[in-house]
Amino acid sequence: MTLTVSTVPEAEIPLLDDFVPGAVDFKGRPSVRSKSGIWKAASFITCAGVAERLAYYGISLNLVSYLSNEMRQPTASAAAMLNAWFGTSLLLPILGAFVADSFTGRFRMIIIASFLYISGLCCLALSTTISSFNSENFRMYFFLFSMYLVSIAQGGLTPCIQAFGADQFDDEIEHESKAKSSFFNWWYCLSVGGILAPLLCITYVQENVSWFLGFGIPAIVMCIALSIFLIGTPSYRFRVTADQTNPLLRINRVFVKAVRNWRATIAAPSLEQQGSPEASQFKFLDKALLASDGYLEEKICSISDVEDAKGLLRLAPIWVASLGYAVVYSQPSTLFTKQAATLDRHLTQSIEIPAASLQQCFITAVIMIGLPFYDRVFVPIARSITKNPSGISMLQRISFGLLLSLISIIFAAFVEQKRLATAREYGLEDTPAAYIPMSVWWLAPQYILSALADIFAMVGLQEFFYNQVPSDLKSIGLSMYLSILGIGSLLSSFMVSTIQEVTSNQGRDGWFADNLNRAHIDYFYWVLAGVSAAGLAAFLFFNRSYVYRRRNSFY
């Protein structure tokens, strides 16, 4: 029997203002605000996202040991394979986000990528058992197939799951807008700190129990992650747009049309007439609104399409200016650790901190303490002063993070100069295996400043690139943030290899000599400080002219 409004209990009829504009539930019905989204839905997605990070780092952090000890690969070969895999993993989210935003949608991409993830992890665990009855070549090929299957899967999952979590908050409602800013803070906090203890357990199992079990646990974790994600389906909000055209094709059409009309002298219909603050920038794109005879041709390129194209162009300078921060961001896991390995790391006569653990001890601890403090103390105080729901603007947050990153690398340079001076003072220049009589606590400030920089810049970049792209390109927005880190890591590797080749000519040790007491990492830190300062200056310059995307509906 078909129910009419009169036969439905009044309590079961949602109020008209209880519907979320531009959102539906999993059955395609208008999404009811009181029954969907915000933290109820985001908690399922966050748990699944944190579990994915645990699975990813559960296999990636110890791969160099597996390749060197179990696969018997030379150090250089193992490093080359890992660099190629890490680089691919950081750039594939661009492809995954494109497919999600253009074809599958974020929800379907998360499910598809999760199944690929589980398959790749299972194959990786299986690859540890086949050495006894297959050739080493087959084992290596199967291992690489498994790893790149995981890389493809995380390329689809990483940008989509965080974007889908942020989709659960409506910017048009003040308390949901505030909650969305907190969502990015807690996502990063849990992704970094929430996985530390389980990660240490997985690493222990891999090195002391079994590699099969050590790689199998992440597969089980991903199964749990997918189950948690699917359980939350009834509470999710699914964003829809009135224009079902491929969003990238719409924006590409703007550039093509503007180029075709580049000779047009007739004034294009100004976006200023529509009350848009973006009108003063990239006016050449307004020509996309012209037909060949000079009249408005809205069916081909709408004003909204031109605004979206301008919005993406405005992101390009911010993206480039952030690369200096990304280069510095890659140092704690590499050169900072090398510095620490030469210092006195004893807490007591019998307890010594492993050099590689300092990154987790300092950076993770600061993030676990600092992000909740930022979200619960700093933001409310700043909000009461600025009246901004996020306390400070996204670009202000990123700018301060870039400044802290610059200070951290300057401090690292001074500490390295102090370390080299101490080595010379005690005659240890040619005894690299000896500990330098200098406490590892000298490195604490650069680790702490690096962590504080991440709290401001890293989370700020996530929120910024999510918010400032069109509503149907949110996954691509987050992939742009991830690509900053990927390109920054590749630039760092390129700088290290190039500088070492140049400075080690004619029998010299070079800046990155194996004997760190003869090396000059401090010079490299000063180069990075220059790069970081230039990036910060460029960021502040582009910040002044940046026009934030208007908070419009999802249509």
Structure explained in plain terms:
Helix 9 packs across helix 10 (303-321). This protein is 64% helix and 3% strand. A hairpin with a 5-residue loop joins strand 1 and strand 2 (30-32). The chain has helices at residues 38-60, 63-70, 75-104, 106-127, 136-166, 174-193, 196-208, 211-231, 247-260, 303-321, 323-329, 335-341, 358-386, 394-425, 444-467, 474-503, 521-545, and strands spanning 19-24, 30-32, 238-239, 343-344, 436-439. It is mainly alpha-helical. It is built from 17 helices and 5 strands. The strands form 2 sheets. The chain has a 3-stranded antiparallel β-sheet with strand order 2-1-3, with no helix packed on it. It has a two-stranded parallel sheet with strand order 4-5. Mean pLDDT is 84; it is low at 1-13 and 294-298.
Task: For the structure shown, list the relevant keywords.
single chain; 555 residues; mainly alpha; three-stranded antiparallel beta sheet; two-stranded parallel ribbon; 17 helices; 64% helix; disordered N terminus
Shape assignment: globular
Which secondary-structure class do the elements indicate?
Answer: mainly alpha
Helicity level, as a percent range?
A: 55-70%
Compressed to H and E, one letter per element, the order equals EEHHHHHHHHEHHHHEHHEHHH
Poorly predicted ranges (pLDDT <50, ≥5 residues)? 1-13, 294-298
Count of alpha/pi helices: 17
How would you describe the oligomerization state of the chains in this entry?
single chain
Largest beta-sheet characterization: 3 strands, antiparallel
What value does the Rg take, in angstroms?
Answer: 26 Å
In which order are the strands of the major sheet placed?
A: 2-1-3
Instruction: Give the beta-strand count.
Output: 5
Percent of residues in beta strands?
under 5%
**Span of the ends, CA to CA:** 34 Å
Mean pLDDT score: 84
